Amino acid sequence: MYARISRKGQVTIPKSIRERLQVNNEGGVLFLVEDNEVKLKGIPGAQANLLAGSLKKYARRHTPLATIRKEIQGKIANEIAAEGVPD
Q1: 17: which residues sit within 8 A by CB, 6+ positions away?
Q2: How far is 72 from 69, CA to CA, in rounded Å?
Q3: What pLDDT is recorded for position 44?
């Protein structure tokens, strides 16, 4: 079965496949990449809800992009300043 990829990289899973995988609006799919092939494993809504937040302890805290940029700019400025100081 063929599905077109949108400009945003999104694909609509055909209804017949969603039914076969037993996933609905609240369910999800797991993408498995093996030997340059992608396989989908259906995760029904109840199971998907059980997984919600299960990886939270492994996730890093969100850092705003502006904060990251300021930190990088500061490091670059320090490196440039250090190059200008004779030993």
Answers
A1: 1, 40
A2: 5
A3: 76
